[in-house]
# Entry
Amino acid sequence: MMQINNYKSYENIQFQSLDLADQTLAEVCFYRCTFKVSSFQYTELVDCEFQECAFMGCNLSLAVFANSKVIDTEFRDSKLLGINWGNLGPVIVARFTNCLMDRCAFCCQNLLKVKFSSCSFREAAFSDCKLARVKFDDCDFAGCQFHRTDLSYADFTLSRNYFMNAETNKLKKAKFSLPEAVSLLANLGIELK
# Structure
């Protein structure tokens, strides 16, 4: 199995069954690398960079991204539970497909160039984020919180279990479908019959 060393760069490498659980990586750059069935669970990634990388069937649950960057990176069929994505910095450019993102936190981030498809966001939180025009395709938001988040033109038509306060979030021209959209009326103090 290949060893990952701090302060190194890795380019065009395919990592298979890599186990970095409970480790700390500092100032490591990955460019066009693929990680398959690998574990970064509880891993601390300090000043690391992932550019044009792919994570397939990986476990990054409770990983800590301290001042790291994720640019043009794909996460597919991966467990990303409990991650504080706010530690990455203000901008993330990524695609998430069929990922478990339960109990994740997104704070003060520009997520305009992020795509989410078939992801679970149970008990997750988006606070002070820019999600304008983001499409959430077949995502589950049970217990997810949105606070002071710009969801203008965002598309939730194929998603479910969402609830957001129209008074504390920007929902201009956001797209929703029935019957799920009825949940948006819950905080208005009205009665539906």
